[in-house]
Design brief:
Blueprint (H helix, E strand, L loop, with lengths): L1 H24 L17 E6 L14 E3 L1 H7 L6 E2 L2 E2 L12 H16 L16 E4 H11 L3 E2 L7 H4 L21 E2 H4 L3 H7 L5 E4 L11 H11 L15 H36 L9 H11 L15 H6 L1
Parallel strand pairs: 5-8
Antiparallel strand pairs: 1-2, 3-4, 6-7
Helix pairs in contact: 3-4, 4-7
Length: 321
């Protein structure tokens, strides 16, 4: 009896461990099946439409971020995103390069704004182990290889940087304990380590290019999420239905074109009338009444008695008339 009970306890413990582990490594299909916002420092509880995003416009039809964070993400190159100084070593070295900044923008927009990361939302509504495409990670590393960071340790920005602001509102020096600046090549050495380390367990470097997410390719991500489970609903901002506002704009354009055609036709008609008028002799060029009388008089044959009524003329006069 004691052995059976011990075996049963061990079996239940094993099942619990497997279930707990799977929640961090596989999509949590039992929790969320439609666009949902994870728990982030600057996100919303539920996705909604945003009209005035300054960056990350690819998510504006249903976004997990508001316009405030996108104002910071619209900076080129990136400076301060929330409480994180993205340009950590510009005073000692060079500012964050534009190419590296662009890749960080893809990452931040993807993490802060996408409503389609629900398969990887775990306990406490936190994201874990999102399979990120090796191609993106390698490109991200290559573009940032010569840029600098003062992250401590293995390169985890969650724990290796000082974040936040001083009492006067200025950003804190991100370098912990006098940690010196090193370039990405020295800190990470590869795209795999960059993705697996930079945000802790948020990303997982994946060489299966079909079954992964790419922050720079929304269409690929939507196809991947839908392939995980046929019942999943995703939000596709790449297909925007025509709204009543859009229809009004279209109608305005049509009427504008018609008005333009009418003005062109009126202009052509006016031009033709002017041309026709110019082709006709003017009144001053036409003979006066006295001149016409003289012309008619000189053009007719001379009669012996022009004042004789027609009925009194002889036959020769009639024939001449």
């Amino acid at each position: 009896m004691g052995k059976s009970l011990s075996f049963f306890v061990v079996f239940l413990s094993f099942c619990w461990l497997v279930n707990t582990q799977s929640r961090f490594t596989t999509p949590t299909a039992d929790r969320y099946t439609s666009p949902t916002c994870p728990k982030t420092n600057y996100g919303k509880d539920e996705p909604s439409k945003e009209e005035n995003l300054y960056a990350c416009k690819q998510y504006q039809c249903q976004s997990c971020c508001g316009e405030n964070i996108t104002m910071e993400l619209a900076q080129v190159p990136l400076q301060q995103i929330g409480n994180v100084n993205m340009d950590q070593c510009s005073e000692k070295h060079h500012p964050l390069s534009g190419a590296c900044s662009d890749e960080w923008t893809y990452i931040e927009c993807f993490y802060q704004c996408s409503p389609n990361l629900f398969p990887w939302i775990g306990p406490l509504k936190k994201l874990h182990n999102i399979p990120i495409c090796a191609k993106f990670c390698d490109n991200w590393f290559n573009l940032c290889a010569a840029d600098y960071t003062c992250v401590a340790g293995e390169g985890n920005w969650l724990t290796g940087l000082d974040k936040g602001f001083n009492e006067d509102g200025t950003a804190k020096n991100p370098c912990k304990g006098g940690v010196s600046c090193r370039n990405y090549t020295q800190v990470y050495g590869s795209g795999e380590k960059l993705c697996n380390t930079v945000w802790g367990d948020l990303f997982k470097y994946t060489t299966d290019e079909e079954h992964c997410v790419d922050p720079s390719d929304i269409k690929h991500n939507l196809d991947f999420v839908k392939s995980l489970n046929p019942s999943y609903e995703v939000n596709d901002c790449t297909v925007t239905p025509v709204s009543y506002t859009d229809a009004g704009v279209i109608v305005g354009i049509v009427f504008g074109v018609l008005a333009g055609l009418f003005l062109i036709a009126a202009g052509v008609y006016y031009f033709m009338q002017r041309k026709k008028a110019n082709d006709q002799p003017s009144k001053k060029d036409q003979p006066k009444t006295e001149e016409m009388t003289t012309l008619r008089t000189t053009s007719q044959p001379t009669r012996e008695n022009p004042d004789t009524p027609p009925n009194t003329r002889d036959q020769s006069d009639v024939e001449e008339a």
